[in-house]
Amino acid sequence: MADSKLKIDIRRNAILEALRRDGKVYVTQLSESLGVTPVTIRNDLDTLERDGYLIRMSGGAVYSNRSSEKAESSSNSAVSCQKEKEAIAKTISRMIKDGDTLFINSGTTTQFIATELKGLTNLNIVTNSLSVAMTLGGVASFRVILLGGEINSQYAFTYGADAQEKLSHYHADWAILAVDGIGAVNGITTHHAEEAVLDRMMINSAANVIIAADHTKIGRTGFLRVCDCSEGITLVTDNSEITSELKELTASGINVVMA
User: Fold this and answer.
1) Taking burial as the number of CB atoms within 10 A of a residue's CB, which of 24, 42, 236, 255 is the most buried?
2) CATH of 2-72, one of 3.10.20.340, 3.40.50.720, 1.10.760.10, 1.10.10.10
3) What angle do CA 144, 168, 111 make, to 5 degrees?
4) Contact 189, 221 (CB under 8 A)
5) Beta strands in 99-205, from DSSP E residues, in sequence order
């Protein structure tokens, strides 16, 4: 029995490693590479999804941010990750002026940003993130608009036609977006297909665009493409060593700011 459990753990760790490396996995490929049936792989993916490690899609699964958080917790590096996101949030908050209008999407990094923004006054915020709306809704001088629509209860954001129709009425000084990947070749990407349309609309309707992404997102490709990397977009990332990927992003026109 113990040997069987060990084999299961080894197999599921292999699946998670493939997810961390590639961003997505497919049942047929995993079945062949791990030497088990597709039914076994589907059971593994279902279990890992329940535990918050991945998001199931047709034929496979994509990486979940919660997988990174769980891995960091198990290796005692969660505090370091939190500090990096806090540094990014502080840097972004200094770029915003009192009275600005902001689009903010969902994500753990934008939650940190929302906390830092509470030090400003008279902001207008349009968001599809329930947690961002709750964090900023209590600030007396802020006007917070939560986009209506369908709710993704697992990740606490709204999406769909109603949210898109509401968002189409607004223009912002800044779009502040957390993403799952950014690279010179594959552009800006996300794992949430239902939120990608809103991200794209926020980018197109804002005078300035800020991508908030720690170093683990640099060079990674998420499930769905949001847009190209181009001039007019600012990437705020943590102060890690300058990589070839960051140099390529700069060459593509991205303004890279180190927190």
Assistant:
1) 236
2) 1.10.10.10
3) 40
4) yes
5) 101-104, 124-127, 143-146, 150-152, 157-159, 172-178, 181-183, 187-190
How far apart are alpha carbons 253 and 137 in whole angstroms? 35
* Alpha carbons 247 and 1: distance in angstroms, whole number: 51
CB 128 within 8 A of CB 146: yes
Cα–Cα distance for residue pair 72/55, rounded to 1 Å: 18
Distance in angstroms (rounded) separating the CA atoms of residues 130 and 145: 10
**CATH fold of the domain at 78-258:** Rossmann fold (3.40.50)
Domain-by-domain residue ranges, the chain?
Answer: 2-72, 78-258
Q: Give the strand pairing for 124-127 and 181-183.
A: unpaired
CA angle 9, 31, 64 (to 5 degrees): 60
155-204 pLDDT, tens digit each: 789 999 999 999 999 999 999 999 989 988 889 998 888 899 999 999 99
State pTM to two decimals. 0.70
- Amino acid type, 113: I
Q: What angle do CA 164, 167, 169 make, to 5 degrees?
A: 120
| Rounded Cα distance, 85 and 9, in Å | 31
